[in-house]
Amino acid sequence: MLGPDATPGQIEATRKGLGLDRPIYEQLVGFYGRILRGDLGQSYFLDRPVSQALWERAEPTMVLMLSALVVAIAIGVPSGTVAAACRGSAWDRGLMLISLLGVCIPGFWLSLNFIYFFAVRLGWLPAAGYVSVLTDPAGALRYMVLPAFSLGFNQSALIARISRSCMLEVLQQDYIRTARAKGLSHRAVTWVHAFRNALVPVVTVIGITTAVLIGGAVVTEIVFNIPGLGRLIISAILRRDYPVVQGVVLVTATAYVLINLGVDLLYAMIDPRIRYD
Amino acid sequence: MTEAAVDVLASAAAAGAPAMRPRWLRRLLANRSVVTGALILVAFVLAAVLAGTLSTHNPTRLEPASRLQPPSARHFLGTDEFGRDVWSLVLYGSRVSLLVGVTTMVLTSVGGIAVGLVAGFSRRLDTVVMRVMDGLMAFPAILLAIALMAVRGPGVWNVIFALSVVYMPRTAMLIRSTVLSIRELDYVQAARALGREDAGIAARHILPNCVGPLLVQGSFVFAYAILAEAILGFLGVGVPPYVPSWGNVIASGKNVIREAFWVSLFPGVALTLAGLSLNLLGDGLRDLLDPRLRVQ
ipTM beyond 0.90? Predict the structure, then answer.
């Protein structure tokens, strides 16, 4: 903060100004007191309150998470359903192999490969950067395709696996056999009768996926140079800007807990047999 | 014993003799996921152990004259921006990854067993311990690891510490739930009625039942830890940049991806294969150890 030429007097004054000369327990109580008042403190380096810095960086992270979620659902649910409907076929084996790879391929490495192929070699999409959806929606979409696919692909693998096992369970039910006995087509049985009932646990997994995306977004933002909360926390860590680190961790942990709570409540809403006493 | 009975016993023994393998080993070897996963993992262990022999160059030696060379007979997987041999970096990187993975797995298992047993046996401590575990699990795993690394600074052992803290609660929860389900069974009640202490019951009757779930969980923790170590290295908050690790090499490859895609490609392939082997192993073990899945 003060640079290598700072005098001991300046260092002492800064320590006092930041309250770092006080005992740890006093600093901790003061921190919690400020949190309760909605004050996350002042950044050491950004010259602004932490809450303001978080607010400015929230939009790119939220856009990235939502786009990745759309990709994960769009790939995962149909893949799992088709694999279950064609159990044991080449489709099933192929899709499940891709989903296994999706679980194992590191997201940040996949991002680099996407950049190399689609941006460097083919030149179809920008390699990195961010444009706000509020100012240029078309440009924002171009910039968001690669990050959303690389973040969403990993999660789609999990959704596909769960969708498949849920569909398989539903397809063995008596009412599905009855529907088939009535002469309904394979497609109608799969998509009209089985799919809707298999969705209940899948929705829960999608909720959990949303919470997982918070952590994944940190790495994706670094790779694609997106000015979101992930980049904010990494730069804060590297500069030891502790108020910002605390702020980002606190806000994301709160979001994580709230999403998990939302999932639990949603589960009870979708499946009337579940009750929380 | 009658002669007929002796014949029956002899023929039964003869029927079991040719295999000469325990039943669990036969089932293990018959599972394709387990065998494939174990073979890939063994290859990585050999690569890590024999890195000194298999490597063609010193992985930390900088050779600016040979920077960014594509794969060739001299440099099997090319060189990075500092002229370091990528093949040697990948081999030595497997040491860091396996060290972090194995140690994190052991520490999370030991910590998880201790915490899970305490929580499972003591109703008074259960609430306190489990709320602390809930608190740790409230953070996205990688973010908590990053925050811990921010406090402790870069280093292999700091990475292991951070990842053990992050993944231990999941193991503790698993052990606790196993303890709770077994604690009330008749044979445990009988052991208690015979005057056995809690510690004796835990060691003799509860822990053997935790081995199965622990093995499955351990293989997944191993995979997560390897991946998380690479992510931390990639972000610059893991092991120091001069230590050859897959995450560090991928990070240095990011800067030169336009000119030299191979720098980040090969450590990523190694990372994917390591993850694949452990996931296959975990999936296979779960299929074998979960009777419900075995029936299917």
Answer: no
Who has greater pLDDT, A5 or B176?
Answer: B176
- Hey, what are B295's tokens? 């029936």
Rounded to two decimals, what is the model's pTM?
0.83
Flag whether pLDDT at B269 surpasses 80: yes
Token pair 């503790």 in the structure block, residue: B172
The pLDDT tens digits for A150-181 are 999 988 988 898 888 888 888 888 999 999 99
Share of chain B above pLDDT 90, in %: 48
> Once rounded to an integer, what is the mean pLDDT over residues B179-205?
87
Chain A nearest-CA residue for B33 = A100
The encoded tokens of residue A18 equal: 């930041």
Q: Is B65 exposed, middle or buried (0-12, 13-18, 19+ CB in 10 A)?
A: exposed
**Partners of B85 in the β-ladder:** B79
Give mean pLDDT, residues A79-90.
88
**Average pLDDT of A69-94?**
90
Q: Is B68 helix (H, G, I), strand (E, B) or coil?
A: coil
| pLDDT score at B287 | 80
**H or E, element range at B96:** helix B86-121
CB A158 within 8 A of CB A76: yes
Residues of chain B positioned with their CB less than 8 A from the CB of A108: 230-231, 234, 250
Confidence of residue B296 (pLDDT cuts 50, 70, 90): very low
Interface residues of chain A, partner chain B, Cβ below 8 Å: 100-101, 103-106, 108-109, 112-113, 115-116, 120, 211-212, 214-216, 218-219, 222-223, 233-234, 237-238, 240, 242, 245, 248-249, 252-253, 256-257
Taking phi first (over 0 means left), then psi (-120 to 50 degrees means alpha), and beta for anything else, what does residue B290 get?
A: beta
Q: Do B141 and A215 touch (CB under 8 A)?
A: yes
Reported as type and span, the H/E element at residue B62 is none
Q: What is the DSSP letter of B64?
A: G
Q: Which residues pair with A49 in a beta bridge?
A: A42
Whether the CB-CB separation of B144 and B231 falls below 8 Å is answered with no
For B12-42, the DSSP string reads HHHHHTTT-S-HHHHHHHH-HHHHHHHHHHH
Contact B201, B188 (CB under 8 A): yes
Chain B contact probe: residue of A65, A103, A104 with most B CBs at under 10 A: A104
Residue of B nearest to A245 (CA): B147
Burial class of residue B193 in the structure, from the number of CB atoms within 10 Å of its CB (0-12 exposed, 13-18 middle, 19+ buried): exposed
B chain contacts of residue A111, beta-carbon cutoff 8 Å: none
Q: Which residues of A touch B223 (CB under 8 A)?
A: 104
